[in-house]
Amino acid sequence: MYMQKKPSQDKKINPYIRFSSIAIQMGLTIYLGSLLGAWLDVKFQNENQLYYKIVSLIAVFLAIFSVIIQVIKITNKNS
After folding, report:
1. Between 41 and 6, where is the model more confident?
2. Do 54 and 37 touch, CB atoms closer than 8 A?
3. How far apart are CA 55 and CA 57, in angstroms?
4. Residue of 53, 56, 52 whose CA lies nearest to 39
5. For 46, phi and psi rounded to 5 degrees?
6. Which residues contact 33 (CB under 8 A, 6 or more apart)?
7. DSSP state of 1
8. Is 50 in contact with 40 (CB distance < 8 Å)?
């Protein structure tokens, strides 16, 4: 009988996978923020797309803030 090895829980995730997931998360946050802003403009019949601009900008700032926090956590674990 072959014994299966249990994966080590101390095994680190490849940094490329971590950073690519951070990029996907950032893109998804900005995309969903722009969709929310566009929906708000349609719902409240705003012709100058004010909600789209505001919510998209907030989404960009939230995405950047999230990336900074995650990079700080990664660098603190590695040092």
Report:
1. 41
2. yes
3. 5
4. 52
5. -95, 110
6. 55, 56, 58, 59, 60, 62
7. -
8. no
What's the predicted TM-score (pTM) here? 0.78
Tens digits of residue pLDDT in 20-77: 899 999 999 999 999 999 999 999 999 999 999 999 999 999 999 999 999 898 888 8
Neighbours of 55 (CB within 10 A): 20
Beta-carbon contacts of residue 41 (< 8 Å; ≥ 6 apart): 47, 49, 50, 51, 52
* Radius of gyration for the chain, computed over Cα atoms and rounded to the nearest angstrom: 20
Query: What burial letters (b/e) apply to 29-42, b meaning 16+ CB within 10 Å?
Result: bbeebbebbeebbe
Q: Amino acid identity of 51?
A: Y
